[in-house]
Amino acid sequence: MFEFHSLHSTAYDNRNSETTVKYWLIKVFEVLKGIQDDIVLDGTVYLDETYFSKAKQNKIKKDGKEQRGISRNKKGVGVACNDKASIYIVTGTSKPSRTSTMRTYGKHIAEGSTIVHDEEKSHNILVEELGLKNEVYLSNEIKQLNDKENPSYPVNHLHMLLKKFMRAHGGYDRENLQDWMNLFWFIMNEPKDRYDKVLKFIKMAIMSPKRVKYRDALSKRHDK
């Protein structure tokens, strides 16, 4: 479950039913709630938003056609990283604003850090409020560069891995997107060793007062 595996392959590998795996996934979500709340990145911080489509039945159409590009049919996720850690926070918007940018990143970036980002204007509030140093690159220009030369590569690489992870769970519940982001955070951050990661989770689960009943969990839609 702490790898890039679908629920189907996890069930197959562990010889469980998919229903059982869904139940355990919901329990994992409960244990991981709020796990990113106290993460603060310092030094040089790379940040950018990525987007996921809303469920088909919730998409807004204009003249019978779906809107293209960044629209209200997308859900934004703010991704930021330094050389030690990363965060993945649902923005609550389909297009960044100064308010959503501060809400997403504000408490996760240490004052005096340097942010590396594209020309998204809403990011300026972070510089103003947190006293950050600012490195801005034009997305049209850096798009032509190879990975080693692209200053936004660290966060772009995380976008790629995040998309790959979510594609493995194509039927995920969009309403629980932050739960999926917490799981991805747990996979991507320390400890890197798989067994240390499992041990850390077990300790968290033991300390967690949360209880999830099988019947209650599966009466809710966490996988659609």
TrEMBL record:
Organism domain of life: Bacteria
Which positions fall inside the ISXO2-like transposase domain?
41-184
Q: What is this protein called?
A: Transposase
Q: Which organism is it from?
A: Faecalicoccus pleomorphus
Q: What lineage is this protein's organism placed in?
A: Bacteria, Bacillati, Bacillota, Erysipelotrichia, Erysipelotrichales
